Amino acid sequence: MAAPNPWIILPFVLLLGAMALAPLAAPHWWLRHYAKVAFGLGAVTLVYYLVVLRDLSHVWHTVHDYLSFIALIGSLFVVAGGIHIRVPGGATPLANAIFLLLGAIVANVLGTTGAAMLLIRPWIQMNQPRVTAYHVAFFIFLVANVGGCLTPIGDPPLFLGYLQGVPFWWVAKNCWPMWACGVGLLLAMFYVIDLRNFSRATRTARETQTLHESWRCDGLVNLLFLAVILGAVFVRQPPFLREALMLAAALGSWFATPRSVHAANDFNFHPVQEVAILFAGIFATMMPALEWLHLNARTLLGDEAVPGMFYWGTGLLSAALDNAPTYLGFLHALFGVTGAKDVHLVLAQFPAEMVAISVGAVFFGAATYIGNGPNFMVKAIAEQRKVRVSTFLGFIFKFSLPLLLPVLLVVWLLFFRH
What we know:
Layout: H1 10-25, H2 27-52, H3 56-81, E1 84-86, H4 93-126, H5 133-142, H6 156-164, H7 170-200, H8 203-207, E2 216-218, H9 222-233, H10 241-256, H11 259-264, H12 270-301, H13 307-320, H14 323-338, H15 343-349, H16 351-364, H17 373-384, H18 392-416
Antiparallel strand pairs: 1-2
Helix pairs in contact: 1-2, 1-12, 2-12, 3-4, 3-6, 3-9, 3-10, 3-12, 4-5, 4-7, 4-17, 5-7, 6-14, 7-16, 7-18, 9-10, 12-14, 13-14, 13-16, 14-16
């Protein structure tokens, strides 16, 4: 089969550039036309593969991976939207730190998308009336990204790795020290910052409690549907049975959840619809980019695989683009550098490099709003709840560079420098 022309990578570059810049330069235009952009650019690549290369098998494999990816993300989104947690306001810094730690753990079960959608509303509520932009930023750091580093369910790039053949428990076994370090450092930073904010707040703000509210969880029937989704992850044969089970669980959740719960969560399908459309374009357009990385990895990265190089390379591109396709790109690059033919050989001979790619993709996904799918969803919900969140560049300069970057440096020094 002929290699794709490098110029066909251009639709991938244009789509990622549009995702990064269009919401800032022309937000209303992007909201109306992002589907046309994603589908149009994706169609260019698909036509090239089907008509010029006649590579039907590659297209079919990509379609299967996309459907598996969206089935997991979408089903977790629906099930999480059927659970509503009501909390009192006026949380203390210690209560907040415990909540974020629990959210980081839950992210490995519900996925960062499911955990973020489930917990962002109670997180905002429990910090009324002193909730600020840094509350949203640390929620994105811990719940929507770093926390989900222990299972393939946790974060989209790790699930793509699972689809490529990475064993389910390999991630937890090999990435837990980095997870503990990253989560611990971020929680310590948050506690210090929140303690200062709490002490500066007025006495009324510190003592505020929503008297008619108490800790309560509605929609617990969805735990049953969550169990179905988690069980389906382990189903590999026959084809599409896993995705069918996830879809069935999502439909069951939708019809079994009282409308009052969905109303309390302001639940709608727009966030997951946007993710599904954009990732359809990403999965289609990234096919030639992945092939090019595989063929040219040895030239770009040299003959020797170095964990630190894969950590920073995967991480920086995950922050600038999106961590799911970046993970796949550097996985293919590792194949090219090592000459390995499958994931199992890479895991046996180059485990440190695989850990570096996994941690880099998950941790650096927190650095920008476009680094991981849930980030934009969290921002949108916070704005809907009248929280003053940072702009795209403000998030980077106020939070990612001064707070997240030192943690990323420590993780590199402790685990990937040598």
